[in-house]
Amino acid sequence: MKKLYIVAIVVVGVAIAVIMMSLKNTTTYSDFTESAANSEREFHIVGKLDKTQARVYEPQINPDEFSFFLIDNKGTTKQVVLHKSKPQDFDKSEQIVLIGKMQSDVFHANDILLKCPSKYNDPIPKIE
Amino acid sequence: MTSSIEYVGEHIWAGKLGYGFVVLSFVAALLSFVCFCFSTKRSEYLSFARIIFKLHALAVVGIAVTLFFMLLNHFFEYQYIWQHSNKSMDMKFILSCFWEGQEGSFLLWTFWNVVLGLILNRVLKNTEWEAPTMAVFALVQIFLASMILGIYIGDYKIGTNPFLLLREHEQYRNMPFIQNPNYLLKLDGRGLNPLLMNYWMTIHPPTLFLGFASTLVPFAFAIAAFWNKKFNEWQKLALPWAYFSVCVLGIGILMGGAWAYEALSFGGFWAWDPVENSSLVPWLVIVAAAHTMIINKNKGGSLFTTHFLSIAAFLLVLYSTFLTRSGILGNSSVHAFTDLGMTGQLVMYVLTFVFISVALLIHDELIKYSYIIGSLLIWFFSLFYGHQKLALEIWCVISAGMTFWAYIKYFPKEKDEEALYSREFWMFVGSLILLLIAMVITYFTSLPVINKLFDLKYAQLKVQEYNDFILPFAVVLVILIACGQFLKYKKNNASAFFKSLMISFGLALVFGLTASIPLYLNESKLETYNKIGYTSILITSLFAVFANLDYMLRVLKGHIRKSGSSIAHIGFALIMIGVLISTSKKITISKNTTKQNLSELSKEFDNQKSMLLTQGDTVPMGPYMVTYTGREKVGIDYYFKVDYLTPDKNGKLEYQFTLKPKIQDNPIMGTAAEPGTKHFLDKDIYTVAYADVKTQIDSASLGKFKPPTNFVGHVKDTIFAGNAIIVIDSLRTNVNETEYKKSDSLLEVTVILKAYDSKEHVYTARPKYIIKNNTQIPGEYIIEELGLKFVFWKINPEEGTIEITMSERVGNSKDFIVMEAHLFPFINVLWLGCIIMALGTAIAILERIHQIRRRHA
Questions:
Q1: B750 pairs with which residues across the strands?
Q2: For chain A, how long is the longest CA-to-CA vector?
């Protein structure tokens, strides 16, 4: 069994190495302030859409650019430029998770996750 | 309360009947567990235990039939029926409604367990294995049955009752409709989630749940082995069941991938989503378990690993249940299910079985009871004094320690070392690697749990990151698959072994390198390590395919029935190749053509993958010219028709096909996009559309012009329209200035207007202005393509200006869609691999069953 012990140790060692390596690179959930202070790193920002400000999507100019304003969980509002097309049901979103970096006071996101209420909450039963 | 109101049309008997079955199922499971436990010591209880288990089975069927009956007859007074179905629904989706909700899917799982349990009972009848394995089954059934009980013990809610009346549900108890005795007459259900209205929802969950349920059998055997203190005999009995698990769970997982590819808009079939991962992980572990069982059967040994892996596979299924149903994945998964408040129960479910497994591992009575009592004490302590996270962490460490210690102390060590060139050594290494991959995936998938336990804020890994770290392991695995078949048990002649593999490896090298050339030639966005990685997995997967094919043909002489594992391995390698080609060479053909300068941002924002298609325009996209011809509304679905054309040898455009990506505008569920895909033998064209379905295009006023705007300008001035820039280019006239002053002459002046649209096409308008015998006749010119009308109606020769009006056509902001299109080359290799792997495992199962029957005959 001795060879097997060596193999087992190597295998476990590799697992730990992989996990350690990725821990260095894993992004964390954060807010605009921390992202602005570390503008080279990527963060996940959770927040809500600021419905009082403009949402700009001009596909004739660039179909992969959509701009809006987000209020993060600490209450800071910043402009966000999402480098993707405008997601379906964006205006109905309850919560937004953005992945990206802050650059010169604008958060540039290259991915987005939306949480929409209508799919999961129970609405009132409709009785005509 | 409302007990005085007589509600019209409710079928109270149905709910009471269903709930009666629920209670019966729970009680019978409890009773049969107790009886099977007793019957391990005294066999008189055995026949009674079997009967009670059959009663439990009957009760489960009763629950299912009642629920179905209620669904078919639209009993919307019941919350589950109301939530998951409606009157206008197509009845072919009725099964999907059954298991759309958590209660239904728990019921599905319970049902499969009952089926498997009855079969197992039959197979093991009157053997020493019957009672302990059935006891384990019964214990699991107690937990599953409790998930749909819906009773309260003090403050704790146990389960969610699927037969609750809508008006008794805590969310609706205080709503005004309760006061209306006729509320049921006009009540319609909420209906199925539109994303689930397809045939996948009918076949994927039952297959997947059968796969999950089947991991219980090897687990039950492993536990029974502890009970019987016979550690070396159960493996060959459990092996066909383990194969069954590999087959069915594998098919279930692959179905999920196919569904995602066909109906979801993220452009792939595997998103490394936590819910996907938590079903993949048990599968990897059960595959490893099956391989260690084969080693045990052929050569003996591997006792700890067969136990560990069989137990781990089932525990990981329970963990997966916890992850997906507890709501802890809320922010990080597209599969997020509603939190029914069952987190506590789910955690108890997982931990109880971990506890039982570890307790049984320990042989020493004193230490075993210390562990049992210690665990119970920790549990009570956390219940009454809080500090639950800390208690959990401490208990996990203790349990892990006990497991490790049990391994060192109680499992017999092999006396003779395994030879390096032996099948069992490398199969074992392969199983360890599978376990390693499973552990790492579990770690990353559990980041939300880790965040919660240790107050951290790690975010999920991206798809590319998962792909990158799995790849080297996959390469090693696939090499082992290639070599494994040609290795014999116990010992091999090294040179003979290498010789047998030469042809396969040679072929693989040739094909693999040839196919990889495009990666290195074209200007590719891939990093170097990616290119090397992709090349390696291509060559090694081809190696696995050829080696197993070779083995099947040369050694097994094409004997299909014995070739189950070779065929399954070929299938697996083809899946690797299919995955590789379609992810690495997935080409986004809808390249964004805007000249947006993104150089100030880093390369990672170079995200140009969508394209704007205006109705009527033909634009190049990849190998095609595409035209968006318009939208078609069918019910609540919008289909966006896009024609694909290719130029023939004369350059003329020839129609090829039409794709209709769809967006459903569901009034309750919101909008959901579904791709339109064209399948070829050698590739797939996959398209998803984004469009504004809210803005109605009023066809009545289409075509009419809006009121005109007046412009006074010189030659070379610019006028702005919504879709073009117009320049007053020049004036043409047939008279000179002096002649104009004579009042009776005919004067014709044409103004040349040049209109430039956003794509820099130029259109020319030539409105003409005529003066004849002192009558002014303004002239009109319409540029059809731009929907612009110009009227030239005045000249001011003294100032040198002219006056024209411009009107824009209504609907000039033409209907457009934003589309993303990807080309997946050779993706059919992936589906072919899936089918072959399923076939191979099925053949292997049949062969093992046949072998067992022959031995007993």
A1: B732, B768
A2: 76
Contact A127 B166 (CB under 8 A): no
- By mean pLDDT, which of A123-127, B8-12, B184-188, B398-402 is the weakest? A123-127
Task: Answer whether A8 sits within 8 Å of B432, measured CB to CB.
Answer: yes
* Cβ neighbour number for residue B58 with a 10 Å cutoff: 15
The angle that helices B130-146 and B102-123 make with each other, rounded to 10 degrees, is 170
Q: Which of A29-33, B351-355, B611-615 has the lowest average pLDDT? A: B611-615
Tell whether the model's pLDDT for residue B701 goes beyond 70: no
Polymer length of chain B: 857
Name every chain A residue with its beta carbon within 8 A of the beta carbon of B334.
Answer: 113
Which phi and psi (to 5°) does residue B245 adopt?
-60, -50
**What stretches of B326-422 show up as alpha helix (H) in DSSP?**
343-361, 365-385, 388-410
Given a contact cutoff of 8 angstroms between Cβ atoms, the answer to whether B728 and B802 are in contact is: yes
Amino acid at B686: Y
Q: For residue B180, what are its two tokens? A: 């209306």
- CB pair distance less than 8 Å for A22 and B469: yes
pTM: 0.82
Whether ipTM exceeds 0.85:
no
Contact B642, B627 (CB under 8 A): yes
Q: Over the range B625-657, which residues count as b (16 or more CB within 10 Å of their CB) and which as e?
A: bbbbeebeeeeebbbbbbbbbeeeeeeeeeeee
Higher-confidence position of A122 and B38:
B38
pLDDT in tens, B435-493: 989 998 998 888 888 888 788 888 888 887 888 888 888 999 999 999 888 887 767 77
Contact B581, B826 (CB under 8 A): yes
Say which residue the tokens 């069992």 belong to: B424
Verify whether the Cβ–Cβ distance B190 to A2 is below 8 Å.
Answer: no
Using left for φ > 0, alpha for ψ between -120 and 50, and beta otherwise, residue B370 falls in: alpha
Residues B388, B343 contacting (CB under 8 angstroms): no
A64: distance to nearest CA of chain B, Å?
A: 6
In the block, residue with structure tokens 């600021």: A50
d(CA B395, CA B801): 90
CB B596 within 8 A of CB A62: yes
Best mutation target among A18, A35, A67 (most B Cβ atoms within 10 Å) is: A18
Cross-strand partners of B625: B620, B645
